[in-house]
Amino acid sequence: MRSTGRILVVEDSTFVSKVVCDILQKNLNVVCDTASSVKEALVKIRLYPYDVILLDYVLPDGTGIDILRKGRDSLKGYVILFSSLAQEGADITVQALSEGAVDFILKPGWGGMLADDFSRELVAKIEVLLSKKPVESTEKVLKQVNTAELKTGIKLVNCPGKAEGIVVVASSTGGPQALRKFLGKFERVNVPVVIAQHMPPFFTKSLAEQLCKTTKLDVMEATSTVELEPNRVYVITGGKHGVVSGGVLEIIDGPAVNGVKPAADLLFASAAEAYGTQTLGVVLTGMGKDGLEGSKFIKQLGGKVIAESQESAVVWGMPGEVVKCGLADAIDHLEVLPYRVEEIIKWWK
C-alpha cells in the first residue's frame, strides 16, 4: 500500500523516537524517519520532502530552533514541536511557533499528559496536516493577486478615535503565526481586540510578549478582569475563559467548551450580547469548530463575521465550519483580512 505521507521525528532519545514512530505507523499509513541531532536532521530535511517534522528542542549539538532557522529554505512541510508545560517550555514553544512551527504537543508526563492522550492527540494533529498541502508563501500569493486590490504591506490599517464596538478573534493550530501577520498590519484600531487562542497556561503570556514585538498595537495577556480600551489587544490567558460585559473583559474558570479553554464560542457570544451590531468576529486557522456557535450568535444580533480562506489557513477547520454554515460576510487570505477589518470598523461610532 502506498504511504500517505513521510514524517521525520527529530529526538535524541532512541526510545522516544521509536514510540512515536510506532504510534504513527500503527494508526497512519506513513513512512517514519528519525534523526537524533541538528546535523542529521538538516541533512535529511535537504534530502527528503517531509510532510511533517516532529521536533524536540534540546538536542546534543544545538536546538530545534537551530533547525528551523538553518533549514528554513529546505523545509517543505509542517513542523510540530515537542513541548513541556512550564514557563521555560512555553517561551521556547512560542519562539518556535514564531520561527515557523505550526503547532506543539506536550510530551507524556508534562502537565498530566497521559500516554493514551498523547497518542490520540499526536495522530489527530498529524492526520489533519497530512490532508492539507503546505500554505503557499506570502510572496507567491502576492504575485498571483492584484496588488492594488490586496493593498500589500505598504499601508497599515489605521482606524483612529474610539468607537463602541469590539473585534474578537478565534485561532488555534497555526494561530501564533497567523496572529503575528494579522496584527502586524495594524497601526491603530478604534476598538479593543480580544483573542481566544487555544493554549495552556504560561503559553499565552509568552505569546502576548511575542506579539508585542510584531505590531504597533498594545498587546497584553488578560489574566484577570480588565477594562477594555481601544487600540489594545487582549490575549485571554490559557486555561481560562474570557467573556465581555459592560466594557470589561472578565476572566472566568469553568469546564472546557469544545474541549478547549479559552473557548471562542463563549467570547463571541458575550461580545455580541454586549456590542450588538458593532461586533466583528474574525475566525483564523485552527482544528475543530470552536467559534461556530459564537459566530451564529454574532450574526443573530446583527454583527459581522469574517473567516480566513482555505488558501492561507494552516488548518481550515474552524474557519471552514463558519463558511460552510453560510455565516461569513467575507472569506479572505490572511494578508487581506486586516484590510477587511478596516472596511467594517472604520464606520463604527
TrEMBL record:
Residues of the CheB-type methylesterase domain: 160-335
Catalytic activity: [protein]-L-glutamate 5-O-methyl ester + H2O = L-glutamyl-[protein] + methanol + H(+)
UniProt domain Response regulatory: residue ranges: 6-122
Top-rank taxon: Bacteria
GO terms for biological process, alphabetical: chemotaxis
Keywords for the protein's UniProt record, in alphabetical order: Chemotaxis, Cytoplasm, Hydrolase, Phosphoprotein
Active site: 172, 198, 290
InterPro entries: CheB-like (IPR008248), CheB_C (IPR035909), CheY-like_superfamily (IPR011006), Sig_transdc_resp-reg_Me-estase (IPR000673), Sig_transdc_resp-reg_receiver (IPR001789)
Modification 4-aspartylphosphate occurs at: 56
Enzyme Commission number: 3.1.1.61
Pfam families to which the protein is assigned, alphabetical: CheB_methylest (PF01339), Response_reg (PF00072)
Protein name as annotated: protein-glutamate methylesterase
Organism: Coprothermobacter proteolyticus (strain ATCC 35245 / DSM 5265 / OCM 4 / BT)
